[in-house]
């Protein structure tokens, strides 16, 4: 289950500071990961005993998340979905027990619409101030990474929000909760926003490994506004390709409220429109290196989709909402 928890433990252990950073007071020296053992991220290691820049000690359960949307809401501004491809949602660091926290370093708060609006999602959590500076896409320009920006605009496409606002949300809510993307990890010559570039590249590295559309297509599961698909079929195809059982997310009406569900007197109240896939992994050493092993989503939260035969709609995109991407996947 994705239950957010109040952040305590490791951060409190290293320093007692009011600044909302993962490991306040961490040194920028001596993070040569080549000299460290690339330990597995789960079960997590004690950050006082290993270099948390070289081993993920905070959020060791990595989730590569992808969306299937049928439109963006930004079509008139040219914000279109990549044809025949799921879009990148993010790369999330859950705790090894499946809970998670968010907005771990408010000095790197670039999200214009923080959601939730406090660090805990509770009224007594620390307020996350909405960001109002230059959009996060502009951070790539001093690095000359226009190719990265083009790729992100092709495949990391937001739903009912502008793309940079969404990338900033993913960075500030999730990337700041990885130990290995902490600023001291980049050494004393850290360049402003180097961590942002590193995170975007890493999220793409994982995204490219899991070509959901292609995997489903190879099993003759393709978008259709006529045919429904069965949860177990989709799950098995993705499991065979990835090696772990991913979380499969749906939205839309509940099956028991649809014409088909009512006709069958179904008690299956799962949702019926395929919308998201989350792949789970553990990493050896820095997640940036991509040396991972697959694992499965928690057995208690494998899907919120309907399980009745043929109950899942994998909808075709709306006319005018997709394009052939300008750069290869
Ligand atoms: C960095 O490594 C050097 C050489 O091992 C050592 O002398 C120094 O104390 C270390 N500094 C920190 C902050 O770890
Ligand atoms: C899960 O792990 C985190 C981090 O170690 C810890 O803070 C939290 O209390 C744990 N939650 C449960 C339900 O065990
Ligand atoms: C957070 O959002 C909720 C719901 O919109 C609102 O009621 C609350 O006042 C907000 N909290 C803060 C700290 O802004
Ligand atoms: C914040 O609120 C939650 C739920 O209302 C409560 O369980 C928790 O103890 C509160 N935390 C603090 C620090 O007051
Ligand atoms: C922009 O955000 C900063 C930091 O949260 C805040 O101090 C400032 O008032 C904001 N400016 C506007 C125009 O909202
Ligand atoms: C569908 O199932 C949900 C959850 O069990 C239930 O609350 C709802 O009343 C059901 N709706 C119909 C139309 O059966
Ligand atoms: C559904 O329930 C109704 C009323 O109880 C019954 O008449 C009908 O035969 C049932 N349909 C199916 C497919 O079981
Ligand atoms: C397919 O159905 C979805 C959901 O109703 C709709 O949003 C989309 O526009 C449809 N696509 C086409 C090509 O008709
Ligand atoms: C989308 O375009 C196709 C082919 O031109 C057409 O058959 C279909 O009715 C359109 N769908 C919608 C929702 O406009």
From TrEMBL:
SUPFAM superfamilies listed in its UniProt record: Ribonuclease Rh-like (SSF55895)
EC number: 4.6.1.19
Keyword check for Disulfide bond: yes
Record GO biological process: RNA catabolic process
Residues the record marks as active site: 89, 170, 174
Span of the signal peptide: 1-20
Pfam family, one: Ribonuclease_T2
InterPro entries, A to Z: Ribonuclease_T2_eukaryotic, RNase_T2-like, RNase_T2-like_sf, RNase_T2_His_AS_1, RNase_T2_His_AS_2
GO cellular component: extracellular region
UniProt entry tagged with the keyword Ribonucleoprotein: no
Molecular functions (GO terms): ribonuclease T2 activity; RNA binding
Keywords: Disulfide bond, Endonuclease, Hydrolase, Nuclease, Signal
Sections of the chain in a coiled coil: none
Enzyme class, UniProt record, top EC level: lyase
Family recorded in the similarity comment: Belongs to the RNase T2 family.
Protein name: ribonuclease T2
High-level lineage: Eukaryota, Fungi, Dikarya, Ascomycota, Pezizomycotina
């Amino acid at each position: 289950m994705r239950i957010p928890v109040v952040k305590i433990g490791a951060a409190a252990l290293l320093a007692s500071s009011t600044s909302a950073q993962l490991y306040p007071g961490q040194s920028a020296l001596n993070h040569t990961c080549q000299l460290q053992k690339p330990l597995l991220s789960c079960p997590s290691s004690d950050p006082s005993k290993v270099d948390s820049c070289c081993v993920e000690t905070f959020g060791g359960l990595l989730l590569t998340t992808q969306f299937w949307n049928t439109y963006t809401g930004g079509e008139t501004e040219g914000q279109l979905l990549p044809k025949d491809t799921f879009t990148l949602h993010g790369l999330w660091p859950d705790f090894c027990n499946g809970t998670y926290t968010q907005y771990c370093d408010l000095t790197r708060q670039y999200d214009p619409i923080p959601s939730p609006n406090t660090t805990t999602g509770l009224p007594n959590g620390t307020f996350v101030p909405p960001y109002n500076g230059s959009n996060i896409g502009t951070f790539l320009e001093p690095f000359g990474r226009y190719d990265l920006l083009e790729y992100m605009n092709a495949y990391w496409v937001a739903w009912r929000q502008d793309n940079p606002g969404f990338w900033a949300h993913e960075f500030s809510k999730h990337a700041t909760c990885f130990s290995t993307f902490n600023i001291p990890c980049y050494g004393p010559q850290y360049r402003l926003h180097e961590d942002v570039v590193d995170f975007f590249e890493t999220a793409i590295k994982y995204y490219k490994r899991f070509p959901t559309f292609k995997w489903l297509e190879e099993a003759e599961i393709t978008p259709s506004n006529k045919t429904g698909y069965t949860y177990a079929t989709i799950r098995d195809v993705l499991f065979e390709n990835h090696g772990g059982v991913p979380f499969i997310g749906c939205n839309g009406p509940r099956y028991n409220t649809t014409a088909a569900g009512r006709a069958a007197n179904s008690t299956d109240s799962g949702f019926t429109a395929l919308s998201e896939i989350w792949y789970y992994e553990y990493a050896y050493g820095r997640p940036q290196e991509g040396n991972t092993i697959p694992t499965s989503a928690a057995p208690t939260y494998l899907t919120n989709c309907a399980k009745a035969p043929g109950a899942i709609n994998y909808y075709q995109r709306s006319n005018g909402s997709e394009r052939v991407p300008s750069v290869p996947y």
